[in-house]
Amino acid sequence: METEARNRPLLLSLKPRFADAILNGSKTVELRRQRVSAQAGTLIYIYASSPVMALVGTVDLREVVVANPADIWERFQDQVGVTEREFRSYYESIETASALLLKNPRIWSESISLAQLRDLGSFHPPQSYRYFSKTDVSSIFSAMHGRQNDRRASCHA
């Protein structure tokens, strides 16, 4: 079961400021309180939470580093996109921190809104992250290709 989960894409739910920073390349490390069991090369879908509420792009997982918060801060403080105060508040009373090292951010030219995602099925953005199923990924591609076909049809009408 764990191996199966490790090979599936991830969906990260992020505040828009962090989603933007990851996708523009200024934030290359995403912080998590819980260990994320994923392999290098895992595709990560970025969902920007309210007020954006949309899938906005993807990024690849380079590595997961698990250590105590002080070590994570020491190694990655210039790449996490938060102040030391925000970092300490986030990891207050937490003994083990996870750092997702990211590479190859890809901003989509058009995002897929929460309403569009819900039209495809019972999509619910996670509080933190979740693994995507093959059905989830197929739905996303259907939404993206459907939009492209709609544009082509309107151009030829």
From TrEMBL:
It comes from the Bacteria. InterPro entries: ASCH_domain, PUA-like_sf. Residues 12-106 form the ASCH domain. This is Putative transcriptional regulator. It comes from Actinomadura citrea.
